[in-house]
Amino acid sequence: KFSNCNGKRKVQYESSEPADFKVDEDGMVYAVRSFPLSSEHAKFLIYAQDKETQEKWQVAVKLSLKSTLPEDSVK
Description:
Keywords: Cell adhesion, Cell membrane, Glycoprotein, Membrane
Subcellular location: Cell membrane
GO molecular function, one term: calcium ion binding
Main location: membrane
Pfam families: Cadherin_pro
Distance between the termini: 31 Å
């Protein structure tokens, strides 16, 4: 989830992969559809723009799988 620093800015978010990921107005990133996570889906950009000042930012998002099992039980 993305949040703006002072809470007063009106920020518009956009994903570089809109067919796979969206960002709600509150900054929550979510997958648009179900798909197996692979290297082709593991990276995308989020663009943000202040609606008043037109200031822009971008951040690279990299997804990775993390096992919830102890390391010695993961094969």
